[in-house]
Amino acid sequence: MSEELQNKVLFQQVVALLKNAQQQVIRTINSTMVYTYFEIGRMIVEEEQNGKERAAYGKQVLKELSKELTKEFGKGFSVDSLERIRNFYLIYSKSETLLRNSNNEETKSITSEFDTQKTQTLFSFFKLTWSHYSFLMRIDDENERSFYEIETEKNNWSVRELKRQYDSALYTRLALSRDKEGVLKLSQEGQIIEKPKDIIKDPYILEFLGLPELHQYSESELEQEIINKLEHFLLELGQGFAFVSRQQRISFDDKHFRIDLVFYNRVLRSFVLIDLKIGELKHQDLGQMQMYVNYYDREMRLEGENKTIGIVLCQNKSNLLVEYTLPEGNEQIFASKYKTILPSKEDFKRLIESK
Question: Model confidence at 107, in pLDDT bands (50, 70, 90)?
Fold first, then answer.
């Protein structure tokens, strides 16, 4: 190895080490602040419990504390902020996520006095930033909140990405295709991908494309907008997806066909083919996807890779048409609706009831 190359390798190693150190420092600062707020919340709650008229006494405690902390530390300790810190303690001191990890006497005493040794122990509990927790606290359902907390940590979502996934009802969409046991597993482990069906959402929410809900765009325009916003589309697809190609041509018997989008899922170790359809799904669309999947399985799949998955994205579909077109026990071909605007809560409710 030349001296120049050695210096370059050394430089890259040092840069990687320093960047990792910076990230560790940021994580440590964030974690320390979250633990501190948790403990402040505990102190506020315990002080309130000493009051005879708890509601009125509690408000007075927050006002006085806000006044003194603002005088000492400046901005950041308004009554609203302290109320949020108080709620943080109330929510997470009862959290199932927290309790599931409390396997020894030290962690079980989380609500006791705060000390340096306990701070180190609690690093395994609060891994997100205060901004993340401030948003998560707005989710009333504990199972749903736990799911988003797990997925945020697993996928390193920013607060903006977390909000987008929540606004697009990711938990609800994944829960639609699961039984009660599967829904409970979502809240305990997040999205676990073990079989092709685990990666499927119905519907897919593509509001980031900026397209109208009306039929005023073509399939090629839809595809181009997806390519333009590929990073957002990969986030919507979920865990383990990597882009391979668009308009992939396959040929046989002097006939040529083009697959709209080709991805590879690293978790399932299989190709994922996506065809885009405007309007109502037809049985011919599923037959065409079956052909694409068969071709990839026989001509493109390598030894050790799993069977190809095909997804037809359409604006509307008949579940019965899908059921009777595809073979029983189908694990390769799927049809999902897509929405180019965020559905309202009422629309999601109707979607759930129609399943």
Answer: very low
pLDDT tens by residue, 230-245: 999 999 999 899 999 9
Sequence-separated (6 or more) residues with CB below 8 Å from residue 191: 151, 174, 198, 238, 239
Q: Is the pLDDT of residue 108 over 70?
A: no
Contact yes or no for 127/101 (Cβ under 8 A) = no
**Structure-block tokens of residue 108:** 């079980």
Give Dmax (Cα) for the chain: 87
Task: Please state, for a pLDDT cut of 70, what percent of the chain lies above it.
Answer: 84
The Cα-based distances of 231 to 20, 148, 196 in angstroms read: 24, 20, 22
**Residue 288 burial by CB count (10 A; 0-12/13-18/19+): exposed, middle or buried?**
middle
d(CA 235, CA 174): 14
Sign of CA pseudo-dihedral 312, 313, 319, 320: negative
Please tell me whether residue 188 adopts helix, strand or coil conformation: helix
Average pLDDT, the chain: 84
For the chain, the straight-line distance linking the first and the last C-alpha, in angstroms and rounded, comes to 63
Distance CA 204, CA 211 (A): 14
Distance CA 300, CA 306 (A): 11
Beta bridge partners of 248: 259
Contact 339, 201 (CB under 8 A): no
Q: Each residue of 254-299: pLDDT tens digit?
A: 889 999 999 999 999 999 999 999 889 999 999 999 999 999 999 9
At 116 the pLDDT is 52
Instruction: Give the integer Cα–Cα distance in Å for 352 and 350.
Output: 5
Tokens in use for 90? 């109330």
CA dist 143 → 72, 111, 175, 183 (Å):
38, 22, 11, 9
Q: Are 127 and 31 in contact (CB under 8 A)?
A: yes
Closest by alpha carbon to 272, among 259, 254, 256, 282? 259
